[in-house]
Design a protein that fits this description.
The protein is mainly α and 204 residues long. Helices cover 79% and strands 0% of the residues.
């Protein structure tokens, strides 16, 4: 389950996978911009974009379970932002519009990640001459997500081995302790990695 979340790419012998990464990135960017710029009541356009994304998902041969899990994981953030719209005039209409746009954008990005290797996207970013610091930061972030996940697992196992009660208050206190230790260890590891990179002549 952890690898399923940390590795969004799914290799398939599909037409979508064979497309150049630059083409898929351009298509995703156009889809997101169109969703953002559409009028609030363009429900037919939202439905059309959704149908198009579903066709791409079917052609990609990526399982619906993988796409659905990743969408459900990100959807609470979209719902949380859209809920703020309920406080204004025509709140329900604005809420539904924001929710539709956010869901379509999220599904588009999930499809891009599921059909395109992250390294291919980094190459496209370099060709587009994005700031080198941004590209390096993205590469390091993707690499150290796995290190962070493993470190979290070790801390949780150590905490569970020393916890002999299921009381909820103590469980929350233990989780807060794990989060604090994880933050400290992550900061220390980042400093060590940066020092090691500089010692080996790394520079932008």
């Amino acid at each position: 389950m952890r690898d399923d979340l940390l590795i969004p790419y799914r290799h398939r012998a599909s037409l979508i996978h064979r497309l150049p990464a630059a083409v898929k990135l351009l298509g995703a960017a156009v889809c997101v911009f169109v969703c953002v710029l559409l009028p609030r009541t363009a429900w037919a356009a939202y439905a059309g974009i959704g149908a198009g994304l579903l066709v791409v998902a079917v052609l990609s041969l990526v399982t619906a379970g993988h796409l659905g899990r990743r969408l459900l994981l990100a959807e609470p953030f979209a719902v949380g932002i859209a809920l703020l719209a309920l406080l204004q005039v025509n709140g329900v209409e604005v809420f539904l519009s924001m929710l539709a746009r956010s869901t379509l954008c999220l599904f588009c990005i999930i499809l891009l990640n599921a059909t395109t290797r992250f390294t291919d996207l980094l190459r496209v970013f370099r060709r587009l001459r994005l700031p080198p610091l941004l590209v390096v930061t993205l590469a390091l972030m993707q690499r150290y997500l796995f290190v962070l996940s493993e470190e979290t697992g070790r801390l949780l196992r150590a905490r569970r081995s020393r916890t002999f009660t299921a009381e909820r208050r103590r469980a929350w206190r233990a989780m807060a302790s794990v989060a604090a230790q994880l933050f400290v260890r992550t900061s220390e590891r980042a400093e060590r990695v940066y020092a090691a990179m500089c010692a080996r002549g790394w520079k932008l």
